[in-house]
Amino acid sequence: MTAKAHGNRNCENADVVGMWVTADGYIRQELLPDGRYDEARGNRRSAYTGRYTVTGNHLDYVDDTGFTATGDLRDGVLHHEHLVLYREAGPA
Q: CA 29 from chain center: how many Å?
């Protein structure tokens, strides 16, 4: 998250913390409150890890290898490059 959103959440930044999954459940991206992410693909845990920042509804990702990507939150759906991820429902 951005420095403003990290720790002291700014109401201008979307609340994206939590688990996001593709409709088929193959890709699971956990956005952590400390600005880190951990993405699983199929049975491969932590396939991608890195950090992210949030500006408004826009996310910028930097993988631990240096690869960069972007995403946008629209109508409660996370559009991350070519992926569409939905917030995983928590326990009832």
A: 6
Q: E-assigned strands of the chain?
A: 18-21, 27-31, 36-41, 44-55, 58-63, 68-74, 77-80, 83-87
Percent of the chain scoring above 70 in pLDDT: 84
Residue type, 55: T
Per-residue pLDDT tens digits for 19-35: 999 999 999 999 999 99
76 torsion bin: left (phi>0), alpha (psi -120 to 50), beta (else): left
Q: Whose CA is closest to 29, among 88, 91, 89?
A: 88
